[in-house]
Design brief:
With 335 residues, this protein is α+β, with helices and mostly antiparallel strands. It has 7 helices and 17 strands. The protein is globular.
Length: 335
């Protein structure tokens, strides 16, 4: 698992001092190291999906695509996370995590923080409590919502037959999964607040299937940039990988296990000449509707409109909208 050496920020220094006061035998780890959480991913896989537009998946040119086309998105939502190994005790990594999420709304071409729900920032310890001496004063912070350093027990079972592997890398991976869940919860809370108000369409970085309220809202549009799972097989896979700029696939239904069903399709944002087959490819999610093809054309046009201006200098600019880059820059500043 990749880790990056890093000078400790102010929050990490405070977290380390608190640990040394409550847990004997703690030692620093190169001041702190950042865990590249995206390194913990599922294996690449293909998965069949139910076609709901026509009888077979095909490529469709998005109509009325032109330079300067308008977008219907009123806001952008994204989350961020930092996972830092701030110390170790007898080989056990002690992790400190910062999660955040924000909605940036657009008015007169300017992006500002949404006024109805403040951005959320959380600081937490992620510790395998079963493998550590008692930390009563820190653990007690879990029942106090105003406590600055609550603790998440990463040794708690994740499933019925889950056994904690004391290997340091396995413990770090458990901490990263816990941080992922906390970031997703912050994102879902903001998305639900937006959908509850029945606001105009919002561009959400990632899928929308975790929350019932978001997955069934017509104003929530998820844009997925990573493709560890491709919801196509056989000829459909070739169709998706050969989409040209401005083309989308037929609409299909995604029904993840333990999540909500949503409608989805692939869209090519940029010319692949000189690039790999996933360059500029996104997968869009929306709620169920009665006219999926027409709705997919409309939303695809909005997403294509968001490709300008470029989200440079971010290395993911081929798939990222400028509005999401703005969210990330804002979150970096507040967390």
């Amino acid at each position: 698992m990749p880790i990056l050496s890093s000078g400790a920020d102010a929050a990490s220094r405070v977290a380390y001092r608190l640990l040394t006061q409550r847990l004997p035998g703690v030692s620093a780890v190169n001041e702190s190291v950042d865990v590249v959480s995206s390194a913990i991913v599922d294996q690449p896989q293909l998965r069949a999906a139910q076609i709901v537009e026509g009888t077979a998946l095909r490529a469709t040119k998005v109509p009325n695509v032109s330079r300067g086309m308008a977008s219907g998105f009123a806001a952008f939502l994204d989350g961020s996370q930092k996972v830092r190994i701030i110390a170790q005790r007898e080989g056990i990594p002690l992790v400190f995590g910062i999660t955040a999420a924000a909605v940036r709304s657009r008015a007169n071409r300017r992006l500002t923080t949404w006024g109805h729900q403040k951005p959320a920032v959380q600081h937490r310890f992620y510790l395998p409590l079963r493998l550590l001496p008692p930390l009563s004063e820190i653990v007690g912070a879990q029942v106090n919502e105003n406590a600055p350093w609550p603790v998440v027990d990463t040794s708690a079972p994740e499933s019925k037959d889950d056994q904690v592997n004391p290997h340091p890398t396995a413990l770090i991976e458990r901490a990263v999964r816990a941080v992922d869940r906390d970031r997703e919860a912050l994102e879902d809370k903001l998305a639900e607040a937006w959908c509850t108000r029945a606001e105009d369409p919002i561009f959400i970085d990632g899928g929308i299937s975790r929350s019932d309220k978001v997955a069934t809202s017509a104003c929530a549009i998820g844009v997925v940039k990573s493709h560890r799972t491709l919801y196509v097989e056989g000829n459909a896979l070739r169709t998706v990988l050969n989409l040209a700029k401005g083309e989308r696939s037929s609409v299909f239904r995604v029904s993840p296990r333990l999540r909500n069903s949503v409608l989805s399709w692939y869209l090519r944002l940029r010319d692949t000449t000189g690039h790999d087959a996933l360059w500029g490819l996104v997968r869009i999610e929306m709620s169920e509707c009665g006219n999926p093809g027409d709705r997919a054309d409309e939303i695809s046009g909005w997403v294509l409109a968001e490709t300008s201006p470029l989200a440079l200098p971010d290395g993911r600019w081929d798939k990222m909208s400028y509005g999401i880059r703005d969210c990330e820059e804002f979150l970096r500043a507040i967390s």
